[in-house]
Design a protein that fits this description.
By secondary structure, this protein is α/β, with parallel strands linked by helices. The chain has helices at residues 2-24, 28-43, 47-51, 60-66, 72-83, 115-135, 175-184, 197-210, 222-234, 236-245, 251-261, 267-270, 289-296, and strands at residues 97-100, 110-113, 144-147, 156-157, 163-164, 216-219, 276-279, 300-303.
């Protein structure tokens, strides 16, 4: 009931931003041009802005000529400057933190975060969550599991003292949303700071098993969800021992889980109220979707 109420309050708080987004979708070209001009104006005095003549760009065609499509490698020198304490490099707004990519297809990359970026992250979340709640209302009736940043990574700082990695996944959001999400989350956000992968998965599943009414799961990569499932199936003895000793899983739930894990199961079997799993489904991630469907059972997969 607590999760359902917090979801309701959270969705109500996002309606205004969702309506603003849908209104902007009626005039996409002018909306996008306005945003582009704002970005150029705000950042024309940065090193990147001066190098690419932001002050001489009146429209999108000119932007495409003066600012080439960037790769991770072409951006690395600019990112390195910021990490080493440089100011006004890419943005006039100060960089408050870096997030590190998983580095599954190349070496890990640092993504600079500003307060403006965190605001835009929430602005994008509002229409997504509002639309999702209309299509799958029951996904908002119980606790949720969100995985936003790489787990089991050592939190550290750059030479200039800028933190790499968020302390808690709720750090992406404004204070009100963070408070509500902490009541909704099935797994404590700080658990991602656990360095040992086996311990991380054991603790994650203990918390998830304790929430039989889990209703929504959101992760970036389907490969991460498949790694979770591989641990679930390959480490059943360790998980059963964890379940038996757990203080947060109710006795009846323990007995039921032990029976389910001893037989063929899907995630729908373990969490019968799980409505939706959200993850990437396109490009390289598409190859993982058939396997993910098999392990999930009759649970909808929503592509991000």
């Amino acid at each position: 009931m607590k999760a359902r109420l917090c979801h309701k309050i959270w969705l109500l708080s996002q309606q205004r931003e969702a309506r603003r987004f849908w209104k902007a979708c009626q005039t996409p070209e002018s909306t996008q041009l306005s945003k582009l001009k704002n970005y150029l104006s705000a950042n024309k005095s940065t090193e990147f802005g001066k190098s690419h003549h932001f002050d001489q760009i009146p429209d999108y065609p000119t932007f495409t000529k003066k600012v080439a499509i960037q790769t991770a490698e072409s951006m690395r020198p600019w990112i390195d400057k910021i990490a080493n304490g440089g100011r006004q490099i890419l943005t006039t707004e100060p960089v408050i933190a870096f997030e590190e990519t998983s580095g599954t297809t190349s070496m890990a990359k640092l993504i600079p975060y500003t307060r403006g970026l965190k605001t835009e992250f929430e602005q994008g979340l509002a229409p997504w969550m509002t639309a999702l709640s209309r299509e799958y209302p029951a996904a908002f009736h119980g606790p949720a599991y969100w995985s936003l940043s790489p787990a089991t990574r050592q939190k550290h700082i750059t030479s200039a003292g800028i933190p790499i990695g968020m302390d808690d996944d709720t750090s992406y959001f404004n204070p009100l949303t963070a408070i509500l999400l902490r009541q909704i989350m099935a797994v404590p956000g700080t658990l991602k700071n656990e360095k040992d992968p086996a311990t991380f998965y054991l603790q994650t599943f203990e918390h998830l098993f304790a929430r039989e009414n889990l209703s929504f799961v959101s992760a970036w990569s389907p490969a991460f969800l498949l790694r979770m499932d591989h641990f679930l199936r390959s480490e059943k003895p360790s998980l059963l021992e964890r379940i038996d000793k757990s203080r947060i899983i109710q006795r009846g739930r323990k007995t039921r889980l032990q029976q389910l894990l001893d037989n063929d199961f899907t995630w729908k079997t373990l969490w019968p109220r799980l409505q939706v799993v959200s993850c990437w489904t396109d490009a390289q991630s598409a190859i993982h979707i058939p396997a993910l469907k098999n392990v999930l059972g009759s649970i909808a997969i929503q592509g991000k």
